[in-house]
Amino acid sequence: MHFLDDSLLPENQEKLVIQAAPYGPEWLPGDAPDLPLTMDEHVQAAVDCYNAGATVLHIHVRELDGKGSKRLSMFNELVGRLRQAVPDMVLQIGGSISFAPEGEGADAEWLSYDTRHMLAELDPKPDQVTIAINTSQMNIVEIMTADDLEGTSIAKPEYYRAYRDMYLEAGPEFYLEHLQRLRDKGIQPHFQLATIAQLETVERLIRSGVYTGPLVLNYVAIGGGFAGRHPADLIEFVRRTPDGAVLTIESSMRAVAPMNAIGIALGCHVRVGNEDNLWGRKGERMTSVQQVEQMVTIADALGRDIATGAEAKEIYHIGEYYTGTEETLARLGMVPNRRPGQRGFMLRDVK
After folding, report:
1. Residue 132: enclosing H or E segment and its boundaries?
2. Is the confidence at residue 104, as pLDDT, over 70?
3. CATH assignment of the domain containing 190
């Protein structure tokens, strides 16, 4: 992204889209005071986050036994109810479905490709499904401290090891098929990226015509194979992101607020919720709603407006797809592909 002299002035920045992730699939009941269990509680969590200022909802579903649901019927039911309860929110399904271990000592594994592909068949369909690009380690506890995990199920050695040793399976065999299925169903992919290498893979998908649509993505700074918390890495990722992309900052635990504060100041968007963080000040619990309210407060202090639901859908380009590679490159503000025999650095075409 390019920053002009006036790019940091809040009146020139997009209104802030706050993404809420209030369903915490890695946690068990009792780990956080606001983990929804019943379907009514799932819906109420969305309503509460929306009323606090969130306009994008990252969705997982929990069974009554407290474990993350893998039943697509549960997702169908929840999406249907959310369409009625929060019609202005962007509904985003977590593409892992659930990566929680089945029991104590079991591995924390993502589901099979075939099962994850079935997210394109949800009815009613969501606005987005998150998608990871390139297989990597996903050690979500690597940069968590003992204080972060105090009093939670993941503090147990067997659960800690399960999450420490987790891998995210997202190679070409998966993402090529998944992108096509989402396109066929009119569902927007929301790219979950952590490194420049992953961003470059997505750019190659765009330049080769495999993906033709809006580039809506999260920078995922949770460590353990994903990005860490170094501000320079965040700044470089922002710099390398195309001007026409939509970028949201995602971090973990008590680093969420400072990382998001940087993102808000830069004109990016933010994600909060108990899936990412349980804490405010050290030792003090913080609910998903309180985290949304905190982002509203930070944005207000910087003079940045909060997007309404309708504005969030416009910023996210919900429902848009492009006709081919050239239009996609142009809409994203990227320079065109090199023509045969063309030398030198590429410039955008002037007509």
Report:
1. strand 128-132
2. no
3. 3.20.20.70
